[in-house]
Design a protein that fits this description.
The chain is α/β, with parallel strands linked by helices. It contains 15 helices and eight strands.
Length: about 375
């Protein structure tokens, strides 16, 4: 397929990609840490939003600021900045998410003297009458603060354009996911991983038509493909930083038909609507998108959502990837396990970190789970 190599290169070395983009376009680069970040506002300010995922390097400098029991994503992001590997950042945006990420925001503010720093304190409880008004007020403040930091006026027209671009990206990724749900062998899981990651790294204006073309190519490939006869797996958890997981499951004759990741389906689910108030439309999407464990809507919505995904995509079982020391997802897991077991849905929990468990051990666990199905 035409653009797969470009997605792979961007994901393999995001820093190199973004440095080149900055040198050629002159745009400011704004880092962010969570899929609740309003990318559209950053784009409308003429800047480039870059999702930070952690580090591929050994963590040492961050250890003097964070305890060893902080999750690897938080420690890795701080390590990347302290080691100057992401010294191209012009600013950093921290949405209100988990406790560790909020403390990272404080540490960043006190120890990183380069670039600006903005907190976006979005509501945690999304089911109250005041949540919508509060969400819109926070987004309006972010629009004003970001404009001041970058020395620009963020117009409604620029916001509408950015919203159209991000909607196009989300629609194309959704189309790719839908096609793979029907037949996961159409595209290797590692390539799907690269496509979603690239959508948080690459120039969005260039990316949108590329993804649309990839979706068209995949649809053409699906026309003559043989039906998938293996076990259908749903992945769940916070995020997956290891593409090897996909390969190990596929080697065991499984196919990943959907996921519920912050760096997966939760990122592209839901579109911003059209209207005279773009900030309100962005806020509406953030309120109504698939909720993560760091936010609250109801007591069993996360479990019901996973059960619905299993039914919609005819999954045979769920593999729950739990990041070590990720408290929100660790608290989330017991009642999700109980709910899935009550519905007769097979579940395997795997604790992961920067490095996967020994490849042979993990492969054996996946093979055993798939055989059980």
């Amino acid at each position: 397929m035409k653009h797969l190599d470009e997605y792979r290169r961007a994901v393999a070395d995001p820093s190199d990609y973004v440095r080149q983009l900055k040198n050629t376009s002159g745009r400011k680069i704004i880092g962010y840490t969570c899929s609740y970040t309003p990318e559209e506002i950053i784009m409308a300010a003429g800047a480039h939003p870059l999702r930070l995922f952690g580090t591929k390097h050994h963590v040492s400098l961050a250890d003097s600021h964070l305890q060893a029991y902080c999750c690897s994503v938080v420690r890795g992001i701080l390590e990347e900045r302290l080691s100057q590997r992401i010294d191209f950042l012009d600013g950093m945006v921290f949405p209100h998410t988990c406790d560790s990420m909020q403390r990272l925001s404080d540490i960043w503010r006190m120890n990183i003297p380069f670039g600006f720093h903005l907190d976006v304190t979005l509501p945690v409880k999304l089911d109250t009458d005041s949540a919508k008004d509060y969400m819109i007020d926070v987004l309006k403040k972010f629009r004003t603060d970001l404009g001041k930091k970058l020395g620009v006026a963020i117009s409604d027209e620029a916001l509408q354009k950015a919203m159209a671009t991000t909607n196009a990206i989300r629609q194309s990724i959704r189309a790719i996911y839908d096609l793979r749900s029907q037949n996961p062998r159409l595209l290797p899981g590692e390539d799907l991983y690269n496509i979603v990651r690239a959508s948080m790294i690459m120039d969005r204006d260039r990316l949108a038509p590329m993804l649309a073309e990839t979706a068209r190519e995949l649809k053409e490939r699906a026309a003559g493909a043989e039906p998938f006869a293996g076990k259908r797996i749903l992945l769940a958890g916070g995020m997956c930083n290891q593409p090897d997981v996909y390969a190990l499951i596929e080697k065991a004759e499984g196919g990943i038909v959907w996921d519920d990741f912050c760096t997966g389906a939760r990122y592209f689910t839901g579109l911003t609507g059209s209207g005279n108030d773009p900030i309100a439309q962005i806020g509406e999407r953030l309120l109504n998108r698939v909720v993560c464990p760091a936010k609250h809507v109801d007591f069993d919505g996360r479990a019901r959502h996973l059960i619905r995904l299993v039914r919609e995509h005819n999954a045979n079982g769920v593999i729950y990837l739990l990041f070590k020391f990720c408290d929100p997802h660790a608290f989330d897991y017991p009642y999700i396990k109980e709910a899935l077991e009550k519905e007769g849905i097979a579940l395997l929990a795997v604790e992961i970190d920067d490095s996967l468990p020994a490849g042979g051990q993990l492969a054996t666990r996946f093979e055993a789970f798939l055989e059980m199905l």
